[in-house]
Specification:
With about 100 residues, the protein is of the alpha+beta class. The chain is about 30% helix and about 20% strand. The chain contains two helices and three strands, in the order ααβββ. Strand 1 and strand 2 form a beta hairpin.
């Protein structure tokens, strides 16, 4: 019988990377490394492989997402934001006219 991940078989290993500029940002950089390593393992295993497929990405955006101009509530800076069609724009942004 072939092995499965549930039987304790080693299946993937990755090293993450993330930049940091001062010691105060080190904990965030470590979390970024962990996220990056997990993403790389998922790619090795074919988990969520659609997320790297440009055809899938375009089809998903067309059906489920909107690109909306928003303004940061406190700074007033305008930015183009992707959001799901069924999710309202969240703080700290508001939709601009």
């Amino acid at each position: 019988m072939p092995s499965s991940p549930r039987d304790g078989t080693f299946i993937s290993q990755a090293q993450g990377e993330n930049g940091y500029f001062n010691v105060e940002n080190l904990p965030s950089a470590v979390e970024g490394c962990k996220s990056n390593a997990l993403m790389r393992c998922c790619k090795d295993l074919g988990i969520a492989s659609d997320l790297w497929d440009p055809v899938f990405i375009r089809a998903f955006k067309k059906e489920y997402a909107l690109e909306v101009w928003c303004e940061h509530v406190t700074t007033g800076k305008k930015k183009l934001v992707w959001t799901r069609k069924d999710v309202p724009i969240a703080y700290p942004f508001k939709k601009t006219q």
